[in-house]
DNA sequence: TTGTACGCGTTATCAC
DNA sequence: GTGATAACGCGTACAA
């Protein structure tokens, strides 16, 4: 491996390594002429300062890590896209870690990242049912951390979230206004904060409209497509709901399949509204009424927040929470007079 | 910053840094007892070897970079998911770069990556219309590189692709068999290899079935949703095709919207088949007939290929091309007797 | 404005 | 089996 380094470049130009180094930083004084000379030669020889050496020297990595539960989900892809853009604009790179909703992977990732590999972490969490204390053991050495969407309530760190309670309330109210009397709430894990918050909106909307709340109408689903299929079919046949409020888009899709299967027609027999970032929700059969979160913007804001923390460098009068607005977009899956769009 | 390092850990245990270091590698000889002692203390003090120092020392980063044109696309999300899994299993991390189909960004990313930040690159290219020579200037120092899906034909490096020609041929034939006489081919950039290959399949299938090939039936679209909307509407009204073969899923979606708008009914008036990795294609209205690429598997194979190269360490009798099979899944958008599924 | 010299945290080599 | 030491490539005091 005869790759180029600062020393060789220095020799080639008959200069010292420090001068070369200076040519690549903005702060140091250096003769403009020598600087251009160096940069030219560097380009010619394809030299770039070694990232790891710089990092070691400067004790920072210009890298942020992004941890998400899954990737095959429009919401997270869009969020990452937002993060990537902001990161790049700031000269940062992003590392991606997928937990597959596995708490132990999350813990592993976080632990490993504390070896200097990243300057900060943006995470949507996976282990709400578990112990979050692993995040505290780093003490003051914990990397700057920003939560988005799925958060640990008991961990003190900035978070970017959406107004889930209000959206859920309005979503449920929308179903009620469309005539639903027996609305079921589909959730992946109702003990998770996000599932809980959304459920509370649902419960309160029922109460406001004097509809009884039945425990059994809370349908707790899993992460497995097959299991959900069974669970949802059972819910449909046994509970006989006339409305579904899905807390996650995946559950709406599973419901569509189940309804096709059971010959239940949406929206005549069952109306459904779902949290979803799917851009082609209008193309579904029937088009799906969604609560759409500003996914890209959430990513953007999360990244901006992280950079604020990194810039602040200890000063801690930062906003601890940013709440963005989701939008309810009404379509045929909750319509009373569905027509082809 | 009083973070822990190997020296402090050594002091805390009254050992030398070398011994500590040994405890963390698998190869070196070390007393089992001291090793467990060290690992325990390390855990207690939350010590991990600094990644950048190790990298500097070992001249490798245990990191691979993934460059994709876009992220808000099921295909690439799934591919990245596959890559991430394999990388993690090999103890590697992945950096993500999104070019937004901008050639200059791609060049920038590649250049920057050659500073030691990554050990290898997996890329789906963005700049086919441009000069690919920038990849050659690194000479023997070029990082190991694997292309997937979108490749530069003139760059010699392993690639993971799908049998696009055959799929396209079969897709077109399928439309013909369903009774289409006037099939239009929707492409984003017909000069790109992927657009070209798919087009050739289309052309040859027409020929086989004695259908005339008309230049104007090749509809060249853009990356802008608005522009495509206009282009496709024009194509529908002016060319009056009875079949669409979309080389990219985005164009199929745009067609759906256009047809809703123009009151053209799919599949009665227009049949459509598209390359797409959308998992909920069955839920569209009507359900979309797709050529589905094994996206996750492509990612997996690309990553495996890269690791093979990294392991081979120069030995170059590696397969230069892996071709995976796409599947055509027939649904209602190309059906002659559509019924609700 | 430029050069010298040291150290960032780690690991490989060579002693012991 | 363990310790001392040099080197990885770079950036910055400090000296010139």
TrEMBL record, chains A, B:
Keyword Transcription regulation included in the entry's annotation: yes
Alphabetized InterPro entries for the sequence: HTH_LacI (IPR000843), LacI/GalR-like_sensor (IPR046335), Lambda_DNA-bd_dom_sf (IPR010982), Peripla_BP_I (IPR028082)
Domain of life: Bacteria
Entry-linked CDD domains: HTH_LacI, PBP1_LacI_sugar_binding-like
Domain named HTH lacI-type: residues: 4-58
Pfam families found in the cross-reference section: LacI (PF00356), Peripla_BP_3 (PF13377)
SMART domains listed in its UniProt record: HTH_LACI
Cleavable signal peptide: none
Official protein name in the record: LacI family transcriptional regulator
Organism for this UniProt entry: Pedobacter mendelii
């Amino acid at each position: 491996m005869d790759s180029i380094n600062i020393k060789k470049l220095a020799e080639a130009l008959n200069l010292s390594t420090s001068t070369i180094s200076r040519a690549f930083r903005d702060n140091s004084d250096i003769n403009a002429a020598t600087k251009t000379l160096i940069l030219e030669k560097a380009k010619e020889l394809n030299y770039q300062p070694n990232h790891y050496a710089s990092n070691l020297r400067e004790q920072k990595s210009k890298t942020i890590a992004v941890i998400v539960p899954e990737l095959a989900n429009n919401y997270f892809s869009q969020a990452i896209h937002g993060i990537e853009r902001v990161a790049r604009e700031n000269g940062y790179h992003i590392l991606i870690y997928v937990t597959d909703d596995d708490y132990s992977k999350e813990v592993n990732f976080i632990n490993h990242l504390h070896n200097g590999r990243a300057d900060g972490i943006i995470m949507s969490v996976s282990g709400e049912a578990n112990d979050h204390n692993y995040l505290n053991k780093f003490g003051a050495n914990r990397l700057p951390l920003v939560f988005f969407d799925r958060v640990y309530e008991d961990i003190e760190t900035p978070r970017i979230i959406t107004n889930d309670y209000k959206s859920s309330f309005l979503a449920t109210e929308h179903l009620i206004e469309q005539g639903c009397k027996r609305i079921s709430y589909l959730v992946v894990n109702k003990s998770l904060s996000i599932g809980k918050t959304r459920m509370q909106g649902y419960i309160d909307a029922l109460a406001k409209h004097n509809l009884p709340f039945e425990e059994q109408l809370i349908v707790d689903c899993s992460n497995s497509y097959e299991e959900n299929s069974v669970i949802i079919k059972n819910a449909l046949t046994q509970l006989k709901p006339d409305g579904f409020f899905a807390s996650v888009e995946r559950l709406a899709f599973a419901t569509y399949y189940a309804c096709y299967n059971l010959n239940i027609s949406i929206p005549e027999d069952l109306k459904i509204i779902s949290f979803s970032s799917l851009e082609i929700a209008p193309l579904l059969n029937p088009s799906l009424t969604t609560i759409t979160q500003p996914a890209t913007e959430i990513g953007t804001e999360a990244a901006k927040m992280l950079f604020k923390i990194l810039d602040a460098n200890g000063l801690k009068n930062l906003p601890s929470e940013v709440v963005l607005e989701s939008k309810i977009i009404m379509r045929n899956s909750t319509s009373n007079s569905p027509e082809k769009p």
